[in-house]
Task: inverse folding
């Protein structure tokens, strides 16, 4: 079974043994308690990750943010201000700054990451066409500050590792085709693990570092929540494919 906590642990162990350079990124869209569980697993394995929290009730939980930080992980702001401000860039920037200030009362924030909001017509990264996040003492926004010429981006968007095909924004245009041509496209977690464990695989033989994005609400022990997440995500994938087709 895929997208269980046991499978995530297997993936982490395979990454450690592979010798590849990798960075773990988590988008806390929903169910912050799930993020605490993955943070604990990573901590037990001696790994450090960054957790991006949205400023909405279904993500923002000060107690869990503090607990994850205390485990040695970094905390970032998962912003969606252009969506919540209906496309007004100036209002979005003010909203962004207000939310950032609130988060910084709890933990240090040096990194931000756009939340995709697939049903929205606005892309919150567009705030930075007018403003500069570095003036706010922010060091890193993965969509702008990652060298994708030397970094392979893997994300579980769509509850699959090739979900860029039905993703509205969580993908890297211009690089995906190159990765696909090199055989660096995966559907399941087992597909990734198999390549990590093979010394002759395209992944291990490549010179890429890895940026791995997961959404912890997708990773559950089998049960009601596991089944619910699988059903909801399959429905979302159909909707996102429709939205992509309209563009």
Result:
């Amino acid at each position: 079974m895929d997208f269980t906590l046991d499978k995530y642990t297997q993936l982490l162990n395979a990454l450690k043994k592979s010798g590849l350079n990798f960075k773990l990124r988590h988008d806390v869209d929903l169910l912050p308690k799930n993020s605490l569980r993955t943070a604990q697993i990573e901590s037990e394995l001696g790994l450090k990750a960054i957790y991006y929290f949205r400023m909405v009730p279904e993500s923002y939980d000060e107690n869990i943010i503090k607990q994850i930080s205390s485990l040695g992980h970094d905390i970032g702001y998962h912003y969606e201000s252009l969506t919540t401000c209906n496309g007004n860039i100036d209002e979005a920037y003010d909203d962004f700054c207000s939310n950032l200030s609130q988060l910084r009362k709890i933990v240090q924030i040096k990194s931000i990451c756009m939340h995709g909001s697939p049903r929205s017509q606005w892309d919150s990264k567009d705030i930075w066409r007018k403003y500069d996040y570095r003036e706010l003492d922010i060091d890193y926004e993965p969509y702008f500050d990652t060298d994708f010429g030397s970094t392979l981006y893997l994300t579980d968007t769509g509850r699959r590792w090739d979900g860029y095909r039905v993703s509205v924004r969580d993908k890297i245009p211009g690089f995906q085709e190159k990765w696909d041509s090199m055989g660096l496209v995966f559907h399941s977690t087992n597909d990734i693990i198999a390549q990590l464990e093979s010394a002759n695989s395209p992944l291990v033989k490549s010179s890429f570092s890895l940026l791995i994005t997961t959404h912890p609400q997708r990773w559950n022990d089998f049960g009601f929540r596991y089944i619910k997440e699988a059903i909801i995500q399959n429905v979302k994938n159909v909707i996102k494919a429709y939205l992509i087709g309209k563009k």
User: Anything to note?
Assistant: The beta strands are 22-28, 49-53, 74-79, 109-114, 151-155, 209-214. The longest helix spans residues 224-246.
